[in-house]
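If I may wish for something, please walk me through the protein I am sending here so I can picture the backbone:
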Amino acid sequence: MEMLSPLEIVFCAAVVTAAFAVRGGTGFGASTVAIPLLAFAMPLAVAVPVISLLIVWNSLSIVARGWSHIAWRAVLSTVPFSLAGVLIGLYVLLQVDEGILYRILGGVIVVYAVYGLTLADRAPLPPIGWRRALAAATGIAGGSLGALFGAGVGPIYAIYMNMLKLDSAVFRVSVTAVILFQLLIRVCGYAGLGYYRGSVLVALAVAVPFMLLGSWLGDAVVRRMDPRRFGHMVSAVLLVSGSCLLVR
């Protein structure tokens, strides 16, 4: 990876801070905010492993604090399918040109942004007979997209958890827990492919303070905002960034 300019470093620091502020307030969304924006300054092969490991660190503290609130049945029902999805994503990552990946990522982000702006508040409760199939689709989609981009995962699992109509405290820690399981699989895959070396480790070390700052802001500020308005604001940002990736 080429050296970033001072302006690009400031931009990346602001992105990481904002992304983890979103995650600190909602329990998900760091990768969905960070990856499409960081993609303008660095390769996906650097941004994805860095953000993935930062989220593992951040998730461990959230899960440890809210262990007793986790909806284990909903979480564990997605795990085997997430593993299958990660393996699919890692295979595709080695086969597909990065330019194509940017456009696929842009399309995924735009679809989610439109969902967040129009339908997120009206997700129906699925029939019991469909929940196993929904868990399978969620796990495969989340695992494969996460391995490819490190982004779009939180919203996919959040949509699934939201459709189960969980209490807000249970929802936040359960989404974090299921993402943590999937992230641990992904990080092991990235390590096995040799991503954690050189410029990735340097970027990781530089990003840690901004991750901590963003997490603090999420706890102190984001949770006090109106959830619906905040969700629409994030979706609007994602719509712009996803559209830019499509025409990059």
Q: What stands out?
A: The chain has one domain: 6-246. The two ends are 19 Å apart (CA to CA). The chain has a mean pLDDT of 80.
